[in-house]
Amino acid sequence: MEERCHGLQSWIDRLNQAELPALAAVVQDLHRLAGEEKASVQQLADVLLRDASLTSKVLRVANSAYYNPSQEPIRTISRAIVLIGFDNVRLIGLSVSLIDGLLTRAPREQLQELLARSFHAAVQARNIAGYVLSRHEEEVFIAALLYNLGELAFWGCGGVQADELDTALAQPGVIAEEAVRSVLGTSFRQLTLGLVKSWNLSEIASLAQGTSQNDPAVQAVTLGVRISEAALEGWDSPAIEKLVEQLARFTGVTPEDAMQQVLASADEAVKVAVTFGAGKLCNLIPNTDPEQIRLQQEQRRARLLQPNLLVMQQALQDLGLMVSARGDVGLILDTLFKGLHQGAGLERIMLAVLADGQTRFRVKRVAGEGTQSWLSDFVLPAEQPEQPHIFSYVLRHKEAIWMGVPASYNLSELVTGPMRQWLGQGMFFIAPLMAGTREIGVLYADNRLSGRALKHEQFVAFQRFTQLTGRCLEALSKGR
């Protein structure tokens, strides 16, 4: 039975004695060499040669295009040190040890995400340091890489308690720091400091803990770490904007150049992760492809779409008046879409009407990011006996349906393959639009852009808007 740990000292003892002694030894020795003015090529080679697997991995990385663009073959550690530099070989040894020491034992999701973020932070920090320091860039890289050492070690070696924390953090409304303290008896920050101290990494500790905020190396580490965290919210997030401004001031470049530097570093971090044999981390480093950034921006805007009760009430009131005062079709649909999109906070909305002699559904109106293509591409046969679908079902049964909840599971086969390609997977609302007894078409709405769950009050609003719009259209057709 695995022994439980509680409190800082018991975790440090367990990680040092049972879980990570080999990693700790390599990290300590490599760090010690950095502090020795006359550390020789042979001393560094000796540390790496103690472990055959580590030696071969360091040589593989040293031969990569990233570190050795000339592609002159490197077959020994001492040759690697001569060709690509003492500090680079030391950094490779440390990075490879960290990946091997943690990822091979427990490749759990949190560990991979955190390791990806650590590599991203390290590359950002080193490249920032390149602007303001003439040396010590490797130290900055290592300090940023080990910034979350305690948390990395916990997710890599925490066993049953890591499972417990995983479950605790998944609870809605949880405060992460409190959950961590409850399971570990200490914080991740304290655990990092404790490990760094017990591994005799004092300079790394002072860089990573920011004990001297005026030190440019400390600022480079801090900025690198913060950028790697903020990037997870999207490259257009307010947090990134603020950090890019800080970076521009710190390095003396324009905000535009600073942003390009940040994106280039993120791309480089992906290459570094591959080079170090941690290719599985690449997808966890935020993508800088313009198309991906555009998608992130759309998702971000969608997340910001919140229901607005005043807009919704106004739209309902306006539709109510149009039942008796007769608005034209354009005005009725404008009010309907405004009420559902801005009022009820539904992210994507589509009105598909019966067209071509009632034989097929064609899209008449849409709202929301990425819905424009539906206007030209989305066509459904009205009746399809060999493969019935939810649009015709709703119109035939004259009822609004909330798809994706248990009550409608029995209808899921009515969402056909082509429909899923157009609309994606997940919950949606769908309702018939009737002008009295005349079938007009079908109204569809979802929150697919942000992935948020649809809410009961949104469904109530969706039904109300559909009914009122139907009454407006009926009044219009009667010409009163």
Explain how this protein is built:
The chain contains 23 helices and six strands. It has a six-stranded antiparallel β-sheet, with helices on both faces. The protein is of the alpha+beta class and 480 residues long. Helix content is 61%, strand content 8%. Helix 7 packs across helix 16 and helix 13 packs across helix 14. The mean pLDDT is 87.
CATH architecture of one domain: 2-Layer Sandwich
Q: Give the C-alpha Rg.
A: 30 Å
The helical percent reads 55-70%
Order of strands across the widest beta sheet? Answer: 3-2-1-6-5-4
Largest sheet descriptor: 6 strands, antiparallel
CATH topology tier name of one domain: Beta-Lactamase
CATH level 1 name of one domain? Alpha Beta
Low-pLDDT segments, ≥5 res: none
Overall residue-averaged pLDDT value: 87
The CATH homologous superfamily of one domain is called: GAF domain
Structural class: alpha+beta
The share of residues in extended strands comes to: 5-15%
Along the chain, the helix and strand elements come as: HHHHHHHHHHHHHHHHHHHEEHEHEHEEH
Head-to-tail CA distance between termini: 81 Å
